[in-house]
Amino acid sequence: MNNFDLFHNLIDSYIFSRRAYVDPLCIFDENGLGLEGASGLALDNENRIFISDTGHNRIVICTSEGAYITSFGIEGDGPGQLKRPCGLDITNNGTIIVTDPGNKRLQFFGLINEQPPSVENNPPKENFADTEAAFIANL
User: Fold this and answer.
1) Residues 98-128: pLDDT tens digits?
2) What are all long-range contacts of 56-59, with beta carbons under 8 Å and residues at least 24 apart?
3) Where does 14-109 have alpha helices with state H?
4) Structural domains in the chain, sorted by start
């Protein structure tokens, strides 16, 4: 099932008599921090959900069921840092494109890997987000 079909199946499952009823999805990280001003949403090829958490200057990654996996980004103007991220998209090769309007730029992030590149030098994690911006396009 592709991303388009997944979205339509989710929407179709809640439509009744021309009204859509959607159960709220509450997402909290390991510290109990929720979403503040979520404004962008994208799915990758593994149907993981990526959310622009504008108020916390980060991108949150969840399972297709909405369970928190990890997040990346902190407030700032350096590479990999964000100010009020809003829109995002994911290319077919897994590159994450984030609109970063507080810094007047687009940022391109690398792939999201299941394991860190070197387990010897990094503590094991369920998932690892490469937070180094691969490319920055100033607007």
Assistant:
1) 999 999 999 999 865 544 444 444 444 433 3
2) 57/81, 57/82, 57/83, 57/84, 57/85, 57/102, 58/82, 58/85, 59/85, 59/88, 59/96, 59/98, 59/109, 59/129
3) none
4) 25-138 (2.120.10.30)
CA distance 67 to 28: 8
15-38 pLDDT, tens digit each:
544 566 667 778 888 888 888 988
Q: Which residues contact 66 (CB under 8 A, 6 or more apart)?
A: 25, 27, 49
Is-contact 54 102, C-beta < 8 A? no
Which three-class secondary structure string do you get for 90-112?
A: ECCCCCEEEEEHHHCEEEEECCE
Among candidate residues 41, 133, 28, the one with its CA nearest the CA of residue 86? 41
What span, in angstroms and rounded, lies between the C-alpha atoms of 98 and 116? 22
